[in-house]
Design brief:
three-stranded antiparallel sheet, alpha+beta
Length: 172
């Protein structure tokens, strides 16, 4: 195998072909995300950040969890989650409760206001996404999601971050 080829799944892929597709992907991602990121942020309620939105999503799916569990699932350090929980608590979007079985453990759950803010934000974001997704054929939507999830698994696996919880993210 020469330095201009790459072995992948038993097939040899020309390095120029890989470079070509990397360039196209980088350009498309840059253009799409450059437009998408600010618009997605505009569709969040009560000044939520994107990170806060995804933490609220985790809480809405799990009902309650500890700061450590949130940090692990959101892939950030516990100190960052603690600071975020302080802001979410100050805005009355979450409730911190001592675990009845282990008083040292603090569980986090969405407040009623947090549920409302999350649901409204999620609804607005879905409506916004639909304007773009509706221009794709069903098979294109499926392939886009499958390939994006596969790329995310490859990246997480490469970083040693591919856990059982990561698998659940991609199984829906």
């Amino acid at each position: 195998m020469t330095k201009n080829t790459h072995q992948q799944n038993g097939a040899t892929v020309d390095q120029k072909v890989i470079d070509h597709y990397i360039g196209r992907l980088e350009e498309a991602c840059y253009l799409a995300l450059n437009k998408l990121a600010p618009e997605l942020s505009d569709h969040l309620e009560q000044g939520l950040t994107t990170d806060q939105f995804f933490v609220l999503r985790i809480l809405s799916q799990r009902e309650r969890c500890t700061v450590s569990e949130l940090a692990n699932e959101h892939r950030v350090n516990p100190a960052a989650i603690t600071a975020m929980m302080d802001r979410l608590s100050k805005n009355e979007l979450i409730i911190r409760e001592r675990d009845e079985k282990d008083r040292r453990t603090v569980n986090i759950r969405l407040s009623d206001k947090g549920c409302q803010v999350f649901n409204l934000s999620e609804s607005k974001r879905k409506q916004w996404f639909k304007q773009y997704f509706s221009k794709l054929e069903p098979e294109e939507m499926k392939l886009l999601v499958i390939i994006t999830e596969k790329l995310a698994r490859i990246i997480l696996n490469q970083e040693g971050d591919y856990t059982h919880e990561s698998i659940e993210i991609f199984s829906s």
